[in-house]
C-alpha cells in the first residue's frame, strides 16, 4: 500500500488571496503538505509519493518521493494509477485536520474503493485497492463522479463520512475550522496571523 499526494506550490490557493499574500499562501501549503506526510507516516503508510509539475518548494524534500509530471492533475494521476501494483491512497495536500486514525479507518475498508467526500462535492481522499483498473476525474462534483466510476467498473464503494477529514483548506472560512479543530504547524502559522472573532454570533476570522 502506498499514498500519493498531488501538490503544486507555485501561486497556490488563490482563493485565500483575500487574506494571505502569494508568499504566505506558498509557505502555508508547504506546511500543510508536510503535516499530511507526517500523518500518513504515523498511520503506517510506508511509501509516500508527491506528484508535482515542478520541483519548486520540494528541492529539500526527504520525507517522501518526488515524482514530476507536468500534465494536468487527472492525466498525471491516471498515469500513476496505471503503473501501480498495490493499493493506492490519493490524498490531497490541503488536509491538515486529517489524522492517523482517519487514515487507518480508510485503509481498513472491506470494499474495493473508499472515498472521503470534501465539501462542495469534492474528493479529499480516494483509496483504491486495484488502482490499475480505476481512472480518476477530479474537479467539479468529483465525489459523485468517482462513485460512478467505481460502479461502472464493478467496484464496491465505502463512503468514509468524517467532518474533519472532509475539510480541505480552500476558502478563508476554512481557516476558522483549522483554528478551532487543528493542531501542528499549519494551525500555528495561521494562529500568528488570525484569531477567532465570536462577537457576532457565528465564529469568524479576524486579524491578530
Write a structural description.
The protein is of the alpha/beta class and 208 residues long. Helix content is 33%, strand content 20%. It is built from 6 helices and 9 strands, in the order E-H-E-E-H-E-H-E-E-H-E-H-H-E-E. It has helices at residues 22-42, 73-83, 100-107, 142-152, 172-181, 184-191; strands spanning 2-6, 47-52, 65-68, 88-91, 113-117, 123-128, 157-159, 194-197, 204-207. The strands form 2 sheets. Strands 3-2-1-4-6-5-7 form a 7-stranded mixed beta sheet, with helices on both faces. It has a two-stranded antiparallel sheet with strand order 8-9. Helix 1 packs antiparallel against helix 6.
Task: Please tag this protein with its features.
20% strand; 6 helices; alpha/beta; 208 residues; globular; single chain
Task: Give a summary of the structure in a few sentences.
The chain has 208 residues and is α/β, with parallel strands linked by helices. The chain has helices spanning 22-42, 73-83, 100-107, 142-152, 172-181, 184-191; strands at 2-6, 47-52, 65-68, 88-91, 113-117, 123-128, 157-159, 194-197, 204-207.
The strand order across the widest sheet is 3-2-1-4-6-5-7
Q: Helices and strands, in N-to-C order? A: EHEEHEHEEHEHHEE
What's the main sheet like? Answer: 7 strands, mixed
Uncertain ranges: none
What oligomeric state do the depicted chains represent? single chain
How far the N terminus sits from the C terminus, by CA atoms, comes to 42 Å
Could you give the topology of this structure?
Elements: E1 2-6, H1 22-42, E2 47-52, E3 65-68, H2 73-83, E4 88-91, H3 100-107, E5 113-117, E6 123-128, H4 142-152, E7 157-159, H5 172-181, H6 184-191, E8 194-197, E9 204-207
Helix pairs in contact: 1-6
